[in-house]
Structure formats: structure tokens, C-alpha cells
Design goal:
Layout: H1 2-13, H2 17-25, H3 37-51, H4 53-59, H5 67-100
Keywords: Ribonucleoprotein, Ribosomal protein
Organism: Erythranthe guttata (Yellow monkey flower)
GO molecular function: structural constituent of ribosome
Length: 102
């Protein structure tokens, strides 16, 4: 599964076999302890999410997207980004107030 993810990542970047070898070198390794495969798969999924491999796999589109759909997706992405920035700004203000003791 990891090799498939690496190959997809390489094909996304268009770098060929060299990138595939690099991805394998940087790949995700998970130890299975006490034959607990479910727990190991859960850990692997978390690592894939945090490293961004899962996002790269999801982003890969094999079908054509209409311009109207692209506009809708771009609008949703922008709204999500603005919401995230606004939340970060509010959290930063709260932390500054707590540090200053106000």
C-alpha cells in the first residue's frame, strides 16, 4: 500500500522512477506489535495524514472538472482558508491576553 502511494505521489509530481525510489526511502514504516494489525493500520493512517501523502492521493483527479465546478471548489477552499485564518487570529489574541494576565 505504501509503495502504491509512493508511485501515485511520483506520478503526480511527474518525476518518474527516481522520485519513486526517493518516496520509498522516505516512506512510512509502522511496527506491528503483538499481531495487532488493526492498531498498526490506524497508526499508518495517522502518519499518512500528517505527512500529506493521503492528501496527495485524494487530490489526484482522473476525470475532467467543469469550470463551474472549479469555481465552486475554489470558493469553498477560499472560505475554509479565511475561516481558519480568522480562528487562528482569535486564538492568538486569547493567548496574548492570557500571557499578559489581562
Amino acid at each position: 500500500m505504501i509503495q502504491a502511494a509512493a508511485k501515485r505521489g511520483a506520478s503526480l509530481l511527474g518525476l518518474g522512477s527516481l522520485s519513486c525510489q526517493l518516496q520509498q526511502w522516505r516512506g512510512i514504516r509502522v511496527k506491528v506489535r503483538n499481531n495487532n494489525l488493526d492498531h498498526a493500520l490506524l497508526i499508518m493512517q495517522r502518519k499518512m495524514q500528517s505527512s500529506g501523502i493521503e492528501r496527495m492521493i485524494k487530490i489526484e483527479q482522473t476525470t475532467h472538472i467543469k469550470k463551474s465546478e472549479k469555481r465552486v471548489l475554489a470558493k469553498k477552499t477560499l472560505q475554509c482558508k479565511l475561516r481558519s485564518q480568522d480562528l487562528a487570529r482569535k486564538l492568538k489574541a486569547i493567548l496574548v491576553q492570557k500571557v499578559r494576565g489581562l
